[in-house]
Amino acid sequence: MKTIDKIYINGEFVTPQGTEYFDLISPTTNEKLGKVRLGNTEDTQNAIEAAKNALKTFSKTTASERIQYLKNIKSAIEKRKDDFIDVMTEEYGGTFQFASVSYDYMLKSFESAINLLNNYDFTKTMGESEVQMTPIGVVGIIIPWNSSNGFICSKLSTAIAAGCTTVIKPSEMSAQQTQLILECLHEANLPKGVFNIVNGLGEVVGAEISRNPDISKISFTGSTNVGKIIAKEAVNTMKRVTLELGGKSPNIILDDADFSKAIPLALGAAFMNSGQACIAGTRLLIPENKLEETKLLIKEIASNFIVGNPKNPNTAVGPMVSEKQYNRVQDYIQIGINEGAEILTGGLGKPEGLENGNFVKPTVFVNVTNQMRIAREEIFGPVLSIITYKTEEEAIEIANDTTYGLQAYVSSSNTERAHRVASQINAGRVQINGIGHDPMAPFGGFKQSGIGREFGTLGLEAYLEPRALIQPK
Ligand code: NAD
């Protein structure tokens, strides 16, 4: 049993003023793993004050000083690879495969921030004026549980690159993962107050970050509902916001695609991170005359899918993070049945032998229309809806008929055709014939999938405020 009773403010592990505890429950067994002491409003204010003081000098550091800090953090994280993978599989139930990818992603965040700093010009000429790109101020970072340390690394590395200081609020369910990254960040020896981390509840710590006038920007990843609450509060003090929200990503398989490759890829896209992924390809768009072939392929692949202990390197789908999330996924499977969709594989209940954890059966629905709730709402579990189409135009129309627009997928053996279709989809990223991550390309959503972009130059500039010096001649 682990007790996490420290938060991190101004370069030190400190005991929070808050006295409430939150239980950390194993998603794999539902046994208690430990507990975390939660910070309160005062703790959050202290963290913001530390970040505000640190900003005075940190905002004046040179790019090469900041590159050194980023290198220090990266080397501290490099020493703890196994610990990062272990704690993510244990506390969150992320599969070994996903936790390994997530660890690489953490390191890549620092590499790409260093790359940006080596190439970005903070002073530009626009028109006849000098434009100085200045650090935006203290940044509040609020993140969910589905890739906690990945989000801390991508957001913190960009903030540091920009010369900003930060107050970070991870999910209370990620406390052990947070403790590990804190140990690495502490070892990296950055100036006091550049990063502060407060464990706590969204309505307490997150709300204070959204309200406090000393926070200049919020970088949030989470649900569209909470994103809206934060944005409404943020506007009172004109905070800048970057919101990475939900998704219902379409995956268009064109009729000329190699289905023996495209369908395994589609299941990978739907069930990545056990379906708890904002970018999961949860609407599979199939030409009507290819439905039977698709069904056979899916049944065959799904029968070899390993669901179970996330520590097993062969496991494809682990448990849902919490009982609440398990129930949410069950509710949606029931909704799909009630709406008249047909279960191809999976269904309600827990897989045999996995009754103790929050395991669901990876589920594929056919006979789905794009108007059904299972095709419109983000489920955040391994549930895939197959929708058929007649023409390429109809496929694009269905793909775009959604309130979301985070990511999309297109498969075709004709790359020009795939490119043409991809260029008509209203999503921040479109993956063609594969699934990849380019840390120098922008990431973010169209429509209700968010506001703003992360990564690359656009991501960096979201942490900068331009100042134009105009000297009329
Ligand atoms: P969530 O929105 O419930 O919580 C996210 C964070 O916000 C948590 O730290 C939470 O404590 C905090 N929070 C909650 N209420 C708050 C409030 N009133 N004020 C301020 N902060 C508050 O999301 P979740 O359930 O933790 O994660 C799942 C969601 O995250 C899904 O909708 C998913 O699509 C989304 N997500 C998006 C991306 C992306 O990059 N677009 C990535 C991963 C997850």
Task: Give a quick set of tags describing it.
binds nicotinamide-adenine-dinucleotide; Aldehyde Dehydrogenase, Chain A, domain 1; Aldehyde Dehydrogenase, Chain A, domain 2; 2 domains; six-stranded mixed β-sheet; single chain; 473 residues; alpha/beta; 21 strands
Can you say what the CATH homologous superfamily of the largest domain is? Aldehyde Dehydrogenase, Chain A, domain 1
The count of helical stretches stands at: 15
Major β-sheet profile: 7 strands, mixed
Whole-number average pLDDT? Answer: 98
Proportion of residues in β-strands: 15-25%
Which strand order does the major sheet show?
A: 15-16-17-14-13-18-19
Quote the CATH topology of the largest domain.
Aldehyde Dehydrogenase, Chain A, domain 1
Ions, cofactors and other bound molecules: nicotinamide-adenine-dinucleotide
Number of domain modules:
2
- Report the top-level CATH class of the largest domain: Alpha Beta
Give the low-pLDDT segments: none
Shape: globular
The total of beta strands comes to 21
Structural class estimated from helices and strands:
alpha/beta
Helical coverage, percent range? 25-40%
